[in-house]
Write a structure and sequence with these properties.
CATH class of the largest domain: Mainly Beta
Number of helices: 1
Helix content: under 10%
Strand content: over 45%
CATH architecture of the largest domain: Sandwich
Number of domains: 2
CATH topology of the largest domain: Jelly Rolls
Radius of gyration: 24 Å
Distance between the termini: 75 Å
Largest sheet: 10 strands, mixed
Structural class: mainly beta
């Protein structure tokens, strides 16, 4: 921590005293790329005034006695915010942090793979193209919180607090954003939305076109749970993970996983993975598909089959019932580990569409 002086009234101006400001903290409480609003909270000891420098100007942008600031940026980007805590003796200390306001505008919606609205022998039975200005609550429900008190950390030691404010529709796609911000006692926020009690299906084809986030501790997922989970519990209800990415640099941000979970005298699971030959999943849109019939579950990435699981065994009855769809970005957890100094926030998963097809009746 550096101590500066604004006045030169004392011969001993360079010596620290008990009246010097100290213990300055600076927290970015939230940074919303949609509105550009950044919320900042600072505290310090022996301080009579706080000054915020956010625009790059040599003059303070905001001044108050509380250390709580709300500042609005007009465009996405990476910014440095600095707070100065000024003591009654005229000396001040300062601290700065970077703020990232990202909107994925660098990856246009038409960049990457796409799939059709119809297939021979199938009919479209449900879809969300994420047009309009708001999330369709007839299709989606938000999970709120961290799973407590029932399953804190959602059973995976996750670090985020889920909020509906971390998801929105703009320019014909859905954004789910994971942020490094303090909320309700948690260091991160994100969003998780699902179709439980609104839409579920058994057998067919599921296509989800998405641009994925990246980075250590970032865990995006497109997955499904069985309709009867409330009555018989997990894993007997079954789980189908259409896509999971475990972020963290080389060998992670370019790999997606497809997995099933079920009960076979205890929790059992198996699955496969698809590795891009070049680039990472945060650089263009890809389509993650599941084709499901009475005998097999098959996982596809951009229509390339990468794993299949036979589901005819007597202990796999979980996969012959209806399932509902879940979209989320987790932060931390047993599998990805926690974010570290290399992780850049916010991170966004952008979804162009979710489509469910079923075979036409003969």
């Amino acid at each position: 921590m550096l101590i500066f002086s604004l006045t030169f009234c004392s011969k001993d101006k360079d010596k620290s005293t008990d009246n010097d400001p100290s213990n300055l903290t600076l927290e970015i409480m939230s940074a919303n790329p949609e509105t550009g609003i950044v919320i900042i909270q600072s505290t310090a000891v022996n301080t009579i005034q706080y000054q915020l420098f956010a625009s790059g100007s040599s003059e303070a942008d905001l001044i108050n006695e509380t250390g709580f600031f709300e500042y609005t940026y007009n465009s996405p980007g990476t910014y440095t915010v600095e707070v100065r805590a000024i003591g009654s003796n005229g000396k001040y200390i300062k601290k700065s942090k970077q703020v990232v306001l990202a909107d994925n505008s660098g990856v246009p919606l038409d960049m990457g793979y796409t799939t059709p609205l119809q297939y021979d022998g199938y009919q479209l039975v449900w879809n969300d193209e994420f047009t309009g200005s708001s999330i369709n609550t007839s299709n989606w429900t938000f999970d709120i919180g961290n799973g407590c008190p029932g399953i804190c950390g959602w059973g995976n030691n996750e670090l985020e607090y889920y909020r509906s404010e971390n998801a929105w529709i703009k320019d014909d796609y859905l954004t789910i954003e994971a942020r490094s911000e303090v909320y309700s006692g948690y260091a991160y926020t994100s969003a998780k939305m699902h179709t439980k009690n609104k839409f579920s299906f058994q057998y067919g084809r599921l296509d989800i076109r998405a641009l994925l986030p990246k980075g250590q501790g970032i865990w995006p997922a497109l997955w499904m749970l069985g309709d009867n989970i409330n009555s018989i519990g997990w894993p007997s209800s079954g789980e189908i993970d259409v896509m999971e990415l475990i972020g963290g640099g080389n060998g992670k941000d370019n790999v997606v996983h497809g997995t099933i979970h079920y009960n076979n005298n205890g929790h059992a699971y198996h699955g496969g993975a698809y590795t891009l030959t070049s680039g990472i999943y945060a650089q263009s849109y890809h389509v993650f598909s599941l084709i499901w019939d009475e005998q097999y579950l098959r996982w596809y990435m951009d229509d390339q089959l990468f794993y299949e699981a036979a589901i005819t065994a007597s202990f796999m009855t979980e996969f012959h019932q209806k399932y509902w769809i879940i979209l989320n970005v987790a932060v931390g957890g047993y599998w990805p580990g926690n974010p570290d100094q290399s992780t850049v926030f916010p991170q966004q998963m952008c979804i162009d569409y979710v489509r469910v097809f079923q075979k036409e009746s003969k």
